[in-house]
């Protein structure tokens, strides 16, 4: 019986071509995202497309921690902001403070490195406690960082922060132009998305999920729970750091307002609205929130946007804890239809079951 | 937990001359003596040069104590609610700010400051009750969703308060009998002609400190000496057993939530009179209550008092002696506490 069930699976895995491996949904999505610049205006390309991808990446780093590690963090924008400040200090700015003018290929990796180290540090503090404490501690860290950046003029240039940050020019392209910036964000987001998707199935990813489900048991088996969690934080920091660089290139500036409590809650809202089950959720949430942000002006006026987003968030938390993805899971007719391969697998399984019976 | 009474758990220690408790006792006595000397003695020049001046130092200490009183008022409700319901109420800062605005409105309307304080407490208690019944009871047992809901509420509340009261800063006026400054019997300096300069301090701030102490003692008595208090303590330890022994847990929850929210509202009025009321204060006091309960330990009134004392003093001393790094000091205290005692100074593992 084991032969019957195992062999076809193995054969099918071997005979799969890359289209089946990636899944039809992903391919359609990729095609759409690639030709999106052809049909979108500059505004839709940068303010909606690029910005959603950047916010989606920051929310993805939260999804990685919360969805796979069970650690809901409110400090992801702080990590992204750390990368942004590194860019401002070591790159060029026109605020007249620091701005060493290093080339992008030095300050970029440096920013990601510092952000990821900071994320690991926050994680190391936060994993000393568990569950609901994590949210409190990361919120306390994020708020403390915000106040520190606001008060400190020596390093963070206080309230005004840094202005005039320019994206670099290389290969003859200015990377803040709408189309290049969109593709730059898309490339980063795709790398992060694929990394999270496949990382979740790796040994480390599975261990992390096991720790989320039963920490005590994993510790008893002999896993170093703290090290795994801190490493997850470090990985999340890589994604958030990369997104932070894109964010300052997008805004052209970084100030304490970027890392305030509002934006940090915003990231959580994006991740929750999208759903924490699958890495696509944060991007979905980011698109929804950015669209709402842009068009809520017509609906409720620019002033009351926070009320609207807060109410949407409350409704989502109340009716569907897994966000839009959870709604989708609930209303689709049968299990495993979101991806072509699992559909075939389900069909295969029922066939096998029929044969065995 | 075990080694707090060192002399009993470790008989060997007695043969070494002093027990751990005696060492701690002597250390506390020495520190107290130094502090008393610093308050009443006339400072030598080297001390003045290190700590700027005696006046600056004592003002920082007094401001720290006042702020600690305020933080205690805000954080005690937060810690009570968490201890009983495992519900991290991240809308607690919003409750503080709403209390402050309501206190302002009532104080302006009636002309009596005390009515403003009472209104802040009562209306916020009702708001807390409504929140508990409409929101948290529906999501019972789901910590994360409860917390997320409080985040959503705080976002909406902050925006609606901004819409109604605008971005201007309000100041709740204290009545005449509370305002003004008093001379404390502490000499800060001696002029060249021999007259002594006494420390002058706003009377109202001392009242804040005093009321925090009174309310703290009241809470302690309520928790430790009354029937409802014993129910609350039992609920903190084991909610299910309390419910199984025939107590209406929802009733206890509602009371605690109303009390916690009411205290936040009261703190809003009291704090809004001492400092000011403006958008953004909600985040400030939310951070304060978070850090206070992380340091002091969740679910413990004594812990909230200790945490508030440490954080309040650290913040004000930091403000005077290293202005732009004051927040870092708070932060370092939090990290060190977490490293040594992950559940806070008075906290127990849940």
Radius of gyration of chain A: 22 Å
Biggest sheet strand line-up of chain A: 1-2
Structural class of chain A: mainly alpha
- Major β-sheet annotation of chain A: 2 strands, antiparallel
Calculate the mean pLDDT score of chain B and round it.
Answer: 82
Structural class of chain B: mainly alpha
**Order of neighbouring strands in the sheet with most strands of chain B:** 1-2
Count of helical segments of chain B?
15
CATH fold group of chain A: ABC transporter involved in vitamin B12 uptake, BtuC
Task: Let me know the average pLDDT of chain A.
Answer: 81
Task: Considering residues with a beta carbon less than 8 A from a beta carbon on another chain, report the largest interface and each chain's count.
Answer: A-B, 40 and 44 residues
Q: Give me the Rg of chain B, rounded.
A: 22 Å
- Reported by name, the CATH topology of chain B is ABC transporter involved in vitamin B12 uptake, BtuC
Beta-strand proportion of chain B: under 5%
Q: What is the CA–CA distance across the termini of chain B?
A: 14 Å
Q: What's the total count of β strands of chain B?
A: 2
Low-confidence stretches of chain B: 1-9, 11-15
Share of helix of chain A, binned: over 70%
Main sheet specs of chain B = 2 strands, antiparallel
CATH architecture of chain A: Orthogonal Bundle
Number of domains of chain B: 1
